Amino acid sequence: MAHSHHHHEHSVSNYNSAFAIGIALNLIYVVVEAVYGVITDSLALLADAGHNLSDVVTLVLAWGAFALAKKAATDQRTYGFRKVTILASLTSAVLLLLALGAIAWEAIQRFSYPRPVAGTTVMVVAFIGCFD
Fold it and tell me: Rounded distance, CA 77 to CA 110, Å?
């Protein structure tokens, strides 16, 4: 069986647009989760809003690092600014760990003062997240 050879191009033509769209969509969802998390006092929604906010921050850091990494090397910076991508990753990891600590602290507090779960609201907001 003969296979026709053809080329598929799957590269992103404009990373700035990709970053902007990703940031905007995630930020909208963070607001939705945070608002409904506060209204229903849902730790699940607030925790996921915090996690998605860290994704937004990570995207912003990655976008900035991507822009800086393209700068040419100089006499003072012989490697250019490419190392900033590593710092952006480290910053993202630290922020995620801080968010995890805050979520864990609140979850532990909830063992002492349990609250009812607004199941329908959590499910609807989670369903909306499927399209984010």
Answer: 50
Q: Is the pLDDT of residue 24 over 90?
A: yes
pLDDT tier at 6, thresholds 50, 70, 90: low
What DSSP string describes 42-90?
-HHHHHHHHHHHHHHHHHHHHHHHHHHHTSPP-SS-TTTTTTHHHHHHH
From 81, 87, 29, 16, select the one nearest 55 (Cα to Cα).
29
Separation between Cα atoms, residue 68 and residue 62, nearest integer Å: 10
Query: How far apart are alpha carbons 13 and 35 in whole angstroms?
Result: 35
What is the per-residue pLDDT across 70-96, written as a single tens digit (0 to 9) for each?
A: 887 777 766 667 788 888 999 989 988
Number of H helices, E strands in the chain: 4, 0
Query: Residues 57-76, buried b or exposed e (16+ Cβ, 10 A)?
Result: bbbbbbbebeebeeeeeeee
